[in-house]
Amino acid sequence: CLKGTRESVLKEIERWAGGLDTSPVFWLNGLAGTGKSAIAQTVAEQFFADGSLGASFFCSRGVEDRSDLHLIFPTLAFQLAQKYPAFRSSLIPLLRSNADIVHESLLSQMQRLIVEPLLSAKVPTVIVIDALDECKDEDPESAILLILGQLVSKIPEVKFFLTSRPETHIMSGFRGPLLKNATDVFILHQVKRSTVDNDVRLFFKHELSKLAHQKRISRGWPTDDQVDSLCCRAAGFFVYAVATVKFLKHNFRPPSDQLNVIMESPDTTSHEGQAELTTYNSLDSLYKSILNAAFSKNNADDIAVVRSVLGTVVLAVNPLPPSAIATLMGFEPNVVTSLLELVKSLLVLDEDIDQPTRPFHKSFPDFMTDRSRCIDPRFYISPNLHAELVLRCLGLMDGSLKKNMFSIPDYALNSDVEGLRSLGETTLGGALVYACKSWYHHLVVTEHPISDVLSALRRFLEINFLFWLEVLSILGVLGDAARALTATLQWLNKVPEDFQPLFDTAKDCLRFLTEFFEVISESAPHIYHSALPLAPASSIIRKLYSQEISSVARVVTGISASWDWCTAIAEIESDTANATWSPCGQYIAASFGSGIEVRDSTTLEISYVLELPGSEKLHLRSLAFSPDGRLM
């Protein structure tokens, strides 16, 4: 935050952090664009300066490692261990005895990585978690907040500062009985409008005076009336001010001309007789002005390219660099970079075309994908673009994948080849890695079965499926293949009966993967040396890929006629093991000597481990999920 701005909220946070009788949790909640992350950054810096900051985690929907709930507690533990020797001394023995703790449940992670070492270290500290709503969390109540509610009372010297949008699952988490009375709440979008306007005005004056000096613009720019108009248009949204300044700094026009573009656009906060205003009208107007200024002279063909490129930035599962966007979408790199440069004020865009680019703020993709807000058809990103993206992904794999792309020796394990995963990512390139890992995300949100998509999917399963498994095995993400095929089968349920053979093929591919998952995950070559030769004689996968069966060794007898009813076997070292399925069918929970394992029901990979102290004496006799699958 700029000095002199946000004083009321910063004082309130300072009062909370320094108080002996204040709540252990502070929740700063605000609409998109109200400045939550800037405040969180300032708060973290202040806590760092006075020595009270223990750790921080800034979530971001567009960055894979910063949107994964299961990385929050390990990251916080790492930072706490760096700061506090006593915490580190307690944590190291735990990690030595259980290196897989980072793969266990969130509850186990917080209990073992955060609570127990903090209890041992006895250090007062503050932990900051920003933008919790940007983490991938499908629970009806925030998973992190449910756990925080259970455990925060055990570490009374520790305080948690959290920010998020007021989304339903997060609000439900804070309303829970354990957290409701342990939380101070500050609603940012309810701060007095005049206070916010003064802060926005200070920001504009500071940033634009710097810009005027840098560009040697004559004194008197901008005028007080122009600043007042900008403040009015911002309507309390700091993101409007940030985006405006980024736009004015853009080099393709003088700042004064850029400012005129904004001034000449409709002021949606003051016109009478207009349709009912929405919360984001002022922000939408700014985005429209920037897009119009960048692409007003483009013809229909050019606008189609604009939609494809910006749509890829907006809809990508993970941020892609311009070079990968060009490869994936079939454009020349200079076309992509030139286009993105025109709207640089709306993006995080590096000079290096191999660095990922993403929207500068979540409100921009929200605008672009909402037909009621982005009413200009030239710029609206329709869900139909997902169909184009899945076609591009499948097409790129079709033209690039082949057998044994990395020349791995016959019968070698993946672990035998030093640096294989890194080699795979480098050799494949960002676009192909993205296509292999993310195509199904676009498939499942393609609204209507499209013949081109169905044809491409059939070709993928019948020609490139095994080569794709090789890639995912080498990248160490074979579980993605199971998730992709499961999601594909669910999507194929919507297609006409004419495509039943395609459904059967996808189902057989999943059955093949399930049967030989462990083998394939450990060795890509053994797809052809072990898995395929042992596939049942009547299986679709064997008929499709019989020419790929290794000739080095041949199965003479014992090949099954069809798939066994038993899809996979999981070994659990316990005499008292019990197991149960989750209602959704995605997980299997099984008890063992000292706790419970939760496994993916398709791959049998361990998703979580719940350590239950003393459970070996209890002899767990039964397990059950609640009907909604949230509790066990």
UniProtKB/TrEMBL annotation:
Keywords: Repeat
InterPro entries the UniProt entry points to: NACHT_NTPase, NPHP3-like_N, P-loop_NTPase
Signal peptide bounds: none
Keyword Plastid on entry: no
Pfam families: NPHP3_N
Domain NACHT: from-to ranges: 24-166
Listed name of the protein: NACHT domain-containing protein
Organism listed in the record: Thelephora terrestris
